[in-house]
Write a structure and sequence with these properties.
With 303 residues, the chain is of the alpha+beta class. It folds into 2 domains: 30 residues; 264 residues, paralog of FGE (formylglycine-generating enzyme) (Alpha-Beta Complex), CATH 3.90.1580.10. The protein has 6 helices and 12 strands. A hairpin with a 5-residue loop joins strand 1 and strand 2.
Length: 303
């Protein structure tokens, strides 16, 4: 009986070793770019450890610095755009050309014609002749005022997923270690969308194309400013103090979802790479958008 258990244990270890070796080989052999269903170029973020969080006095209460290892993964090089989200809505629509729960997912321009939403702030998408379309000139602008569930559904539709908070921060740091911002320690100057006003919802949002500015060290655009980005994780005040050291997934449950990166509305100090934000996942907030991540095909994934 003892021999049988030993044999089973040995076989399990051998299988696990083979699986790990295969996943590692897949990550090492993965191309530096990947194109998924939604035609967004994705960039390879290599596996490795980094210092997550910050000890800046005004943030450290919920951003305790800790070392985290993250498996290799792909990250969208830019935020999801109006045209890409309109395509998702069209492929998700019923026979009448409408998405059943669309008003709970996103605010589009035609919504503000209703008294109920006349003071809301829409993304530049409308619905005409049974189709969702991005307004001309704003097709490549980031989609905004989108809830967490819609972002999650979009990523799954595209064969991807939302990034974990740890993945997001590793990708945002872009090979720069322990800096205050994604570009270093200096305050932002040109090429960053922040500290802007949107005086009337009849005007378009104060944004630029999703590929505006200079990419970071991993080739990712606008990891600071433009829009807050939804992450997969629930928020917990003390999570960093108890976080796993490898591929943390966030708390199992919660009331708020993580947002990272800062937005067009925020002041420069809010764009710091270690700053954490959180919000009701059902909030239709005009400062929020998202991008997707994806496991390496054949790899071990975020877990």
């Amino acid at each position: 009986m003892r021999y049988g258990k030993t044999l089973i244990t040995t076989c399990c270890l051998l299988i696990a070793t083979v699986i790990f070796a295969h996943a590692k080989a897949c990550a090492e052999d993965a191309p530096s770019t990947f194109m998924a269903k939604d035609d967004v170029m994705m960039k390879l973020i290599p596996a490795g450890a980094f210092m997550m969080g910050t000890d800046e006095p005004d943030l450290v209460e919920i951003t305790t610095p800790h070392k985290v290892y993250v498996n290799a993964f792909y990250m969208d090089e830019h935020l999801v755009t109006n045209s890409q989200f309109a395509r998702f809505l069209n492929e998700s629509a019923g026979k009448n050309g409408q998405v059943k729960d669309r008003k709970q997912w996103i605010v589009i321009r035609e919504d503000i014609e209703d008294e109920e939403r006349e003071e809301w702030w829409p993304t530049e998408i409308t619905h005409e002749r049974g189709k969702y379309i991005a307004y001309e000139g704003f097709e490549d602008y980031p989609v905004i005022t989108v809830v967490w569930l819609a972002a999650d559904k979009y990523c799954k539709w595209a064969g991807k997923r939302l990034p974990t908070e740890a993945e997001w921060e590793k990708a945002a740091r872009g090979k720069i270690k322990e800096a205050r911002f994604v570009w270093g320690n200096s305050l932002p100057t040109e090429g960053v969308v922040y500290n802007r006003k949107w005086d009337s919802n009849e005007d378009p949002p104060p944004l630029f194309k999703a590929t505006y500015g200079m990419p970071n060290g991993y080739g990712l655009f606008n990891m600071a400013g433009m829009v807050w980005e939804w992450c997969a994780d629930w928020f917990a005040h003390d999570y960093y103090e108890n976080s796993p050291s490898k591929n943390p997934q966030g708390p199992e449950t919660g009331y708020f979802k993580i947002l990272r990166g800062g937005s067009w509305f925020n002041a420069a100090n809010v764009l710091r790479v270690g700053l954490r934000n959180f919000i009701d996942p059902g909030a239709l907030d005009e400062t929020t958008g998202f991008r997707c991540a994806m496991d390496i095909p054949g790899g071990t994934g975020a877990k």
